[in-house]
Amino acid sequence: MRRVVVVLVAVVAGLALATVATQLGARHMHEKEQREETLRLLQSRAPIIRSAFRPEPQVPWHPDKIADDLAKLIARESWTDAWGNRLVFRYPGPVHKQGWDFYSIGPNGIDELGRGDDIRVGADFQDLPEAK
Questions:
Q1: 80-100 burial string, b = 16+ CB within 10 Å, else e?
Q2: Is the pLDDT of residue 53 over 60?
Q3: In sequence order, what are the residues at sequence separation of 6 or more whose Cβ sits closer than 8 angstroms to the Cβ of residue 127?
Q4: Strand 88-90 to strand 119-124: parallel, antiparallel, or no bridges (unpaired)?
Q5: How confident is the model at residue 15 (pLDDT cuts 50, 70, 90)?
Q6: Where are the beta strands (DSSP E) in 19-118?
């Protein structure tokens, strides 16, 4: 009888561990999907920022004014990541100090200035294509 109880306890414990492992795996997969969704969102919006900063021939270039206009647009549109956090636009960027950064503060909800678990796209101005 004692042996049956030990076996049953072992089976129950094994099932409990398997359940926890499955839930953790599902949570990890869910977070991975959220990160991928957020990166796709950032990448889909980045061309708007790139094109705004692209200088045009014969037109005065005022990056500070462009950055202000972009920040207002992003705030007005209320772009959010997969966790419901507002996306962040910074010029100059904390990572791309000669350009801009556009990022999600990631699943931990802490603004780590485009680092840590933040999900970021950005560019320095020398990396932007020339106007044609």
A1: ebbbebebbbbbbbbbbeebb
A2: yes
A3: 99
A4: unpaired
A5: very low
A6: 88-90, 99-104
Contact 110, 62 (CB under 8 A): no
- Output the CA–CA distances (angstroms, integers) from residue 13 to 4, 5, 7, 87, 108, in the order listed: 14, 12, 10, 43, 31
* Dist CA 99 CA 122 (whole Å): 7
DSSP letter at 86 equals B
Indicate the pTM of the whole model: 0.73
Give the closest residue to 91 by CA, choosing from 110, 115, 64. 64
Residues 22-31 pLDDT 10s: 444 445 569 8
Reported residue count of the chain is 132
Domain ranges, ordered by start, for the chain: 2-127
Alpha carbons 43 and 80: distance in angstroms, whole number: 13
Q: Beta strands 88-90 and 99-104: pairing type? A: antiparallel
Mean pLDDT of the chain: 80
pLDDT digits (tens, 9 = 90+) for 60-99: 888 899 999 999 988 898 899 999 999 999 999 999 999 9
**Which residue carries 């999907």 as its tokens?**
33
